[in-house]
Amino acid sequence: MKRVLSGIQPSGQLTLGNYIGAMQNFVKLQDTHECFFMVVDLHAITVPQEPAALREQSEAVAALFIAAGIDPAKASVFMQSHVPAHAELGWLFTTLAYMGELERMTQFKDKSSGKDSVGAGLFVYPTLMAADILLYNADLVPVGDDQKQHLELTRDLGHRFNARFGDYFTIPEPYIPKIGARIMSLDDASKKMSKSNPNPASYIALLDPPDVIRKKLSRATTDSGRDVIYNPAEKPEVSNLMSIYSHCSGLTLEEIQAKYEGQGYGAFKKDLAEHVVATLEPLQQRYREIRESGEIHAILKQGAERVAQVANKTVRDVKEKMGFLPAQ
Ligand code: TYM
User: Fold this and answer.
1) Which one of 23, 37, 128, 147 would you pick to mutate in the ligand 1 pocket, going by the greatest count of ligand atoms within 8 A of its CB?
2) 297-314, pLDDT tens digit by residue?
3) What is the CATH architecture assignment of 3-176+294-322?
4) Does the beta carbon of 183 lie inside 6 Å of ligand 1?
5) pLDDT digits (tens, 9 = 90+) for 252-271
6) Which of 35, 98, 143, 168 gets the most CB atoms within 10 Å of its CB?
7) Is 193 close to ligand 1, i.e. is its CB under 6 Å away?
8) Does residue 219 contact residue 189 with C-beta atoms inside 8 Å?
């Protein structure tokens, strides 16, 4: 069975972008692949996090995985920091990476631009991500479009290790949705929808109440035309809303286009809001049940125990190949 690995940072509210770009595929892949899904708390601290907020968000994201439909009997769900092998292999990979290739990462450039002091963790973020993936010799990595460059670097580091120390790592492939790989902001279709945007009207949070979702979508920016047509270059706002509609309704873009022909944006946006609410309401209900039951702790414990066996073996093998003296 092929292996799948992915992770989501527990920094702020998860959005519909995270859901469409990544989580929906996690749920889909768990039936046909051996899956590892983690909350990447070690990545979250590459920007300052308030300890109580980090703890709360970590539990929230883990619970959202389950609420979104990940079945812990099929997939391993765990916290990155519960498996120390991530940090250890991350360091080993940091020594394989070049400053130049890390400087070229657009996420690093975006997060560091205009700042006087930039954390070193932010700079080596991609080497830890490479470790996350290669630790499990994952074949496929379901992510949104913004992580493509990090995946490229992961592949380069895997090849580099194999060339220097002997063939060991599987070189992973990204698994990116055809539509919705980059869900854009509701107020500015040139920016991706992001949980770190200070304007909450720019994103739909997975835990937004139905009325907030309706209000945000009714106010979402559109062009001054009235045709519901998918054309990201000329109609980026409407095309973005159509991608969301398609994912939440199961209709194709063509079907959506035909349905609203000659009707303007009003009816389209109203129905869109109902499809998003119908997608998120059951998820929110399950989320509340999971949080109240406290079952997430046992799920995370079991997940970490399961995956640590794979991860620890990789670190042992890698250290041996690199020439570390074994502990007796
Ligand atoms: P993060 O936490 O920023 O986002 C989690 C996932 O959601 C996707 N995503 C989006 N997809 C479509 N449209 C959007 N607007 C949107 N915003 C976010 C992201 O592409 C991602 O798949 N570096 C990763 C976390 C990570 C990871 C890993 C991922 C750490 N280690 C190993 C895969 C494998 C990140 O920051 O994701």
Assistant:
1) 147
2) 999 999 999 999 999 999
3) 3-Layer(aba) Sandwich (3.40)
4) yes
5) 999 999 999 999 999 999 99
6) 35
7) yes
8) no
